[in-house]
From TrEMBL:
Organism: Candidatus Desulfatibia vada
Protein name (record): ATP-binding cassette domain-containing protein
Domain ABC transporter, first and last residues per copy: 7-243
Keywords (A to Z) from UniProt: ATP-binding, Nucleotide-binding, Transport
UniProt xrefs under Pfam families: ABC_tran (PF00005)
Length: 251
């Protein structure tokens, strides 16, 4: 059976003032897969992610989530579609004056009418999923970098999203913490079948989690390669792709 397309990006172009960041990008994300968007600095990875989650309006083109065009739909459909996604921002974006439990509860309080007890139970369950049981009353400042990432993941999972978007989930972490976050991402994908879209340039993470990659290039403003990362590393005929996957190799 052919996998369903959970996300479709069609002829998307993005600009900041007069600068073209992305030019005529088209891609599909399939249900249940882990897709990594990669490329060098300044290639538009995070810009593409922001458009895919509805945080930025494209210069042209469309983004469909479950066949709803979030670039042109009405407010009700947009809000309904946003409930299907969870986002982990690069810095985790936890509110420093709130406990971990309060941070995770935020989207549940905003988008549901559950009782306080039900919300508390749901928060504990989400924290258990990311191995942070018992840390409900801690402040973000009391957690390590890796634990903050996991707390951010718990909040992203709060509404049982169909799709997770993760922006540089291992950035700034040491190798051990990075490996733990990568392992958690794979576990979540396997256990609950969540479609996951990740932006990263970390090679170790790419090979640990990616089922498929899409590589952007800042010069062409578009996609220059896509497929299995190991295959691209070994067999790509594109010089830029080879250099990205083999940074220590001579040209």
């Amino acid at each position: 059976m052919e996998k369903q397309k959970t996300i479709r990006v069609t002829n998307l172009s993005a600009r900041y003032d007069e600068e073209v960041i992305l030019d005529n990008i088209s891609l599909d994300v399939f249900e249940g897969e882990i897709l990594v968007i990669l490329g060098g600095s300044g290639c538009g990875k995070s810009t593409l992610l922001k458009h895919m989650v509805g945080l930025s309006e494209p210069f042209s083109g469309q983004v469909y989530i479950d066949n709803v065009d979030i670039t042109s739909c009405n407010d009700e459909d947009f809000r309904s579609t946003l409930r299907k996604i969870g986002v982990l921002f690069q810095g985790s974006a936890l509110f420093g004056s709130m406990t971990i439990a309060e941070n995770v509860a935020l989207p549940i309080t905003e988008y549901s009418t559950l009782s306080k007890d039900s919300i508390n139970n749901l928060v504990r369950m989400k924290l258990c999923m990311v191995d942070l049981a018992g840390y409900e009353n801690y402040l973000p400042s009391e957690l390590s970098g890796g634990m903050k990432k996991r707390a951010g993941l718990a909040r992203a999972l709060a509404l049982n999203p169909k799709i997770l978007f993760l922006d540089e989930p291992t950035a700034g972490l040491d190798p051990v913490m990075s490996a733990e976050v990568d392992e958690l991402i794979v576990k979540l994908n396997k256990s609950i079948g969540t479609t996951i879209v990740i932006v990263t340039h970390e090679l170790d993470s790419i090979f640990s989690v990616a089922q498929r990659v899409i590589m952007l290039d800042k010069h062409t403003k578009g996609i220059i390669a896509q497929g299995d990362p190991l295959y691209l590393k070994e067999h790509s005929q594109n010089r830029l792709v080879r250099q990205f996957f083999n940074p220590s190799a001579k040209s």
